[in-house]
């Protein structure tokens, strides 16, 4: 199975290619219209003369269009541009489609390897040893072919959604030029304003994939995310199914997440069936129902998905854009995973938002910011002033951050990115995030360290499976937290140690900050304690995460806590400097941060817990905020 973080990274890996195509089309159309409008000077003078004479707008427009149609140079320019644009956009579509096909093969293979490694770690923890017998390769190949076909279809019918309707991409130059000429001929706007309005309209729409039968359209980057998210989820499900069918497992548990679809009835209402244990063999399990205190119903009947058939209904479990997964539930042994309840509705700026509404509000604001960034890039490419649109981007980003803070939900900076400058995916942050997700922090022994910046090519699944108690999902959450914090702060994290610390001080601690090595040399590092029962005892893990004792409740947030320690002491160059700073922080108690930080009587723990609270959108009192500002925020980029 794949975590939400892994799905986000996988589904976003190809987005820069579609953003490049989109930016190329918008700027090319704008450039051609700008050049074509150079031939309209005579027509503009005629507009001014006719306006002074008091002619109606309809008469002026008719006269201007007559002048333009009689201008041979103008007609030739339009004809040449129309033909060139159609040829070049066809070539660009073919180029991007080819690159998408190649990259998609890599992404689906990565999704398969991630799914297999995480699934096997779950079976290992249950004492069941499974070997890869070629099934993974077969499943992956089939999903690669399916996904490549679906991605290819996205660019078969593309266009822009404008006030005048859908404009196919190969006709957009001619249609936008016609609208620009009408505006100029009315005398209401200048040709410079016309060009800016073309850019603005196309940027707001975004290049879209169009289903003419249904009339629906999606922005290409969004459609590609949906396609890869669905493919990765279905691939993970099939990997799980293959392993289940090698055993006598007859039960599964379906995951749960906040903001699940709650509309409709039956399989359409994901909120109704998520988080429960189901039978996959068609039998009743009364004794197990008593043991776990939960009714066990048939998986296919409730969710529309069949493990045996490896498929399901399009609106149910593992259907289009479904983010749920299922995993084996070992009868008489497993304990159902208890998921945190969805946050209550909140009032923001006078409006009440359910959690689902909050997510939709985020998505809408993210789309607005990406549209403005598309507009900025197109204007830059045609040499127009961008100061106004840059100001709008800053304002909209500020509003987005404020909305997320008010709702208490984490911002998604990767959803605000527009990486359109290259067709080389390896140079984009989206692809770098993907490469990080499919590689691993190597598990090392004792006092060996690794360089956090040198992870490429290290096998995640094998190293974790054979040497570590961490699952691939755990490692992904740790790496995601490191990546996110490093994106916001000048984090100088150079070493990570994965060791076995089973002494009384550390046996229950999954991660910790360590300032010096055994030789008393100041050598700060993040330690992942492989011996902690947190990693291999699910009961202990659930108690820790749901206790409410700490500010964090996920591996991601526990990692943030330790990185806050790293930032707090990052200015220290020697052990004595560290000890001096650490001594100055002792004895500090601050209310309303967490029970753990208050009990610790340690300012460093107050800072770390406050850091977690702040990044999750929770409020802080003035004392905690002042400590955070003094020791951590000084490193903000």
Q: How would you sum up this structure, described in words?
A:
The protein is α+β, with helices and mostly antiparallel strands. It has 24 helices and 16 strands. The protein has a four-stranded antiparallel sheet. A four-stranded mixed sheet has the order 7-6-5-10. A four-stranded mixed sheet has the order 13-14-16-15. Helix 2 runs antiparallel to helix 9 (220-244), helix 7 packs across helix 8 (191-205) and helix 8 (191-205) runs antiparallel to helix 13 (355-381). It is globular, with a radius of gyration of 29 Å. The protein starts with a helix and ends in a 6-residue tail after the last helix.
Percent range for β-strand residues: 5-15%
Largest sheet: 4 strands, antiparallel
Q: Enumerate how many helices there are, as a single number.
A: 24
User: What spatial order of strands do you see in the largest sheet?
Assistant: 2-1-3-4
Seen as an oligomer or otherwise, the chain set is single chain
State the secondary-structure class: alpha+beta
Shape: globular
Radius of gyration using CA atoms only: 29 Å
